[in-house]
Amino acid sequence: MDAPLNWTSSDHYGLAEVQGDQRVDFISDNTRTYLDVVFYVLVQGSISLLGSAGNILNILVFVKQGFKDTVNCSLMALSLSDLGSLVTLTWMSICYLPEFRFSGIEFESLDIQYLTACWPHGSFARITSCITAYISFERCLCTALPLKVKTIITPARTLIIMASIFLMQFSVVSLVFYSVRLGPVYYLRRNTTLVGLVYIDNGPYLENMAFSIDIGIQIFSFVIVAICTMILIQSLIRNRKWRNSATQSAVPDSVDSKTAREKRVVVMVTTISGIFIACYTPSVINLIIMLCFPDYSIVGAYSNTFILIWSLFLNLEAINSAVNIFIYYNMSSKFRTVFSMTLKSCTATAKSK
């Protein structure tokens, strides 16, 4: 869940207990507890673990390939962001595990995960969105200005832009870490005091500000990806018509080979963007609904529905971060070659130990 809590932990538990029968949620507390285990622990945990392993392999491959190509620089940054997104989701899954939550630990895991998993994941998800938007825009620029793009977008500039995206998003989430502190909180339902979340005086205001910026970044990135993807699809259609006409005339092999390479990159970027759009469309719609209907929130009348729906959307975000390795492997012969060498090297190292 990427939404601000806007309450201290004790207020949350008190609110749930005071409202009692006044709640009109579609999903009961018992049902939600069961579904939490299914979606947050089993499904999300499995996807996140496998996806994390895949992105570690991606990073190893891109490091071996080097950063002389702008596409490699961008995809390396995307893999780092996806890894951060999946690792935080893995920690979130652990926090939702009942055996962990009620194991006698000295903190309330559902509150702690909000600060240590939920917000960090949201931050990495926004970074993923920005990088995907940049990659899509870069490919559009390549189709529009094929002769000038290499002087406009260089590997060094790409690395600077990637670092700037990370720093920008980390500065936004730092507002949350400043506004929320860890401290002793009395939990009414559990009749005990544990380490939980405590807001400073203007904490909710700062958190809401960070949340508003996050929504703006997400929507802006999503729109850029959607527009650029449509442009790239049109480019592929034009390229196919050109190739069909070119078969009737003599075309130098070097030109045909270069065009084919460019086409493969465009297809790969379009596929990445398409999966991003499919996985993030529900989240973007959900964020807009949250702004329009205050009761649809983690402390509103439909809190159980809200939490369940976010569990489904977080799984979609996890899928988006986990599947890129299959795209790279199937669409890039260079990646496939280096990947096979890296996997053999890792296997040989493991056997020697």
Entry keywords:
12 helices, membrane, Rhopdopsin 7-helix transmembrane proteins, mainly alpha, two-stranded antiparallel ribbon, 78% helix, disordered N terminus, G-protein coupled receptors family 1 profile domain-containing protein, transmembrane helix, 353 residues
Question: Helicity range of the residues?
Answer: over 70%
CATH superfamily: Rhodopsin 7-helix transmembrane proteins
Task: Specify the structural class.
Answer: mainly alpha
CATH architecture: Up-down Bundle
- The name CATH uses for the topology is Rhopdopsin 7-helix transmembrane proteins
User: How would you sum up the major sheet?
Assistant: 2 strands, antiparallel
Protein name: G-protein coupled receptors family 1 profile domain-containing protein
GO cellular component, one term: membrane
Domain G-protein coupled receptors family 1 profile: 54-328
Subcellular location: Membrane
